[in-house]
Amino acid sequence: MQAQEYIDKAEQYLIHTYNRYQIVLEKGEGVYLYDVNGDKYLDFTSGIAVFALGYHNQAFDTALKDQIDNLIHTSNYFYSPKLGNAAEKVVKATGMDRVFFTNSGTEAIEGAIKLARKYAFLRDGHTNHEIISMKHSFHGRSLGALAVTGNPHYQEAFQPLIGGVVFAEYNNLQSVLDKVNDKTCAIIMETVQGEGGIYPASKEFLEQVRALCDEKDILLICDEIQCGMGRTGTMYAYEQYGLKPDIVTTAKALGCGVPVGAFAAKEKVAKALVPGDHGTTYGGNPFVVAAVDKVFDLFEELEVLKNVNTVAPYLEEKLDALKAKYDFIIDRRGRGFMQGLECNIPVGPIIQDALKNKLILINAGTNVIRFVPPLVITKENVDEMISILDAVLQNYV
Length: 397
Ligand SMILES: *Cc1c(COP(=O)(O)O)cnc(C)c1O
Hints:
Structural class: alpha/beta
Shape: globular
Number of strands: 17
Strand content: 15-25%
CATH superfamily of the largest domain: Type I PLP-dependent aspartate aminotransferase-like (Major domain)
CATH class of the largest domain: Alpha Beta
CATH topology of the largest domain: Aspartate Aminotransferase, domain 2
Helix content: 25-40%
Bound molecules: pyridoxal-5'-phosphate
Distance between the termini: 40 Å
Strand order of the largest sheet: 4-12-11-10-7-5-6
């Protein structure tokens, strides 16, 4: 079949929620993707911060194949051999005590919201609590996660969402304080805002919010779905702030392409959920926990964090050079391999042009080019990316 036939067929039957690029991707190798015509693309998006290990990692693929040969699924009424290992690895990496596996990021957020509400219900003996979320945040598309997503445009047609959500300004303590009252049960935020434009939380802000939460027994939920799993140079971004949240959500790179998410919490919080309170058919099934288990092993073996910390300063340096060269680039922000170039022009056409030149990039909002490559990229990959992007940007002066 020709690419156009694949595209036409998909467009005939899918609900049209995406404007897809007219490219049919067929296979991947390392940091490159190949389409059905055999064209090769340098991928600086990794399936939106998912494929941390690079494509077609032999050891990962073999672990998945072995698991398929044994058992793909059983219900959560049973244990499977890798379940405890995978749970232990998430718990140790997050610094939490217990974890619940979900199928996606948005479900991890749903679980975190339910856990926070149940904790507050047991403590106070009533419901009707409030959650403070941040403007310009992104937490997912299911109704609970959408309710805490600070983007009115995504919410408008789907009201009413879950109630009891108020929004504060990110990196503005006073704005949070203005929203706190005795109904507040949780504050949720991305440690580094992703979709909203690659904004890291300031150290001062996160520390002050942590102190506020301690003082008032409010649960701090850090959404690490995009910035977690090594992307910013530590397994979880909050480690760099020297503090821990009470609940962590993780997904994206957690299964490196196998759909899995999780929410993890400290013991005193986690124990609020008891049998019957929450569940999932697929979550944490034998196939996905085999993936999670192997992902953590490979992070160690491939020294993924070391690579991020070695190559990211080089990426930053090269992006800063682009910023210095082009007037329309007004800022470079981010941590590790989660970087953004903010432009004073819409970046959609730039990303389209990069794609024509076989470089895959993604935006974060209308004005920010986002860089979330596989965590195994080399300096040579950075050079290759920069040379393609530089050539593209010259057409915008
Ligand atoms: C992607 C993302 C989500 C939603 O995850 P899905 O797996 O797409 O449901 C939630 N929060 C953040 C910060 C994300 O980047």
